[in-house]
Design goal:
three-stranded antiparallel β-sheet, alpha+beta, 12 helices, globular, 292 residues
Length: 292
């Protein structure tokens, strides 16, 4: 529990950069003074996460916006951290029994590719606009407007959203919003992202999901997205249907199709999958330990 509490601080409670440092990033990225870009710029951040911090501001045209500014020299620091993690992953694979199955080096490689891609805010802007196109006719979700003319690889200016963090259940109930309806909408939205569009928000922690006062769900950070091919989506559907129909043979064949491993004990895998399905098939969702 203590570890969870510490990790939660990375969502929006990381110590912030000094105002002068933030202003320097903005002016370097946009080659303009802060006064030229904004009518007002709040020096105290409203949120400060591991990659960037967010400040309230107002454009000269009167729109209320939030300014997401990347921490300076972050790429260099991350590359050093990744090098250390890769070294430790290599040692764990070499000296710890069973680690070859987990493939820690592959995990670090995937993490490296994802996190370095997230540092390019232009990529995040593209994600937002793609997401907006997919959900343009969906009345249960709101996608913030982005101001490309005031954005750059290390800064994003986007529409300010009034809302409540999805984890603040008491606040949601106090406003008269039905949290069970919001939960159902959230599930529907993720199912659409995964199975309909094959393009899904890959960092859905509470700091990144706001509920607006009209009940719409609004994602705030679009830096990390996942993508699935049509074949992968079909295979995931096959797994769900196989489990629902208690079809062990179909489940086994689909798992093998998804797997990249060529050597395995077929009989043991068949028994393991059978045990897995039988263990959970008749259990209520609220009785399942998801973490386990």
């Amino acid at each position: 529990f203590e570890l969870i509490q510490e990790l939660e601080k990375l969502q929006d409670e990381v110590p912030s950069e000094e105002t002068g440092t933030v202003v320097k990033v903005i002016e370097t990225e946009l080659n303009k003074s802060v006064e030229t870009i904004f009518k007002k710029f709040e020096q105290e951040p409203i949120a400060s996460a591991s990659i960037a911090q967010v400040h309230m501001a107002e454009l000269h045209t009167g729109e209320k916006v939030v300014v997401k500014i990347q921490r300076p020299d972050l790429k260099k620091k991350l590359e050093i951290d990744i090098e250390i993690m890769m070294h430790l992953a290599g040692l764990s694979e070499k000296y710890i029994t069973g680690m070859s199955v987990v493939k820690p080096k592959s995990i670090i490689e995937e993490f490296s590719k994802t996190i370095l891609k997230e540092l390019d805010f232009v990529n995040e802007i593209n994600n937002i606009e793609r997401f907006r196109i997919f959900f343009k006719s969906d009345t249960t979700i709101y996608v913030p407007k982005v101001y490309r003319e005031f954005s750059a690889p290390a800064i994003i200016v986007m529409e300010h959203i009034d809302g409540i963090k999805v984890s603040q259940i008491d606040k949601l109930n106090d406003t008269g919003l039905d949290s069970s309806i919001i939960a159902k909408r959230g599930i529907d939205l993720f199912l659409k992202q995964i199975f309909q569009y094959g393009f899904f928000h890959a960092d859905p922690h509470p700091g990144n999901i706001f509920i607006m006062l009209d009940g719409k769900i609004c994602f705030l950070d679009y830096g990390m997205f996942g993508a699935l091919t049509r074949l992968q989506r079909d295979q995931l559907c096959d797994i769900i249907l196989a489990i629902t129909n208690n079809d062990e043979k179909k489940l086994l064949s689909t798992v093998l199709a998804l797997s990249k491993r060529s050597k395995f004990d077929y009989d043991s895998l068949t028994l393991d999958i059978s045990d897995f399905v039988n263990k959970y098939f008749f259990i209520q969702l609220n009785e399942i330990n998801v973490g386990q």
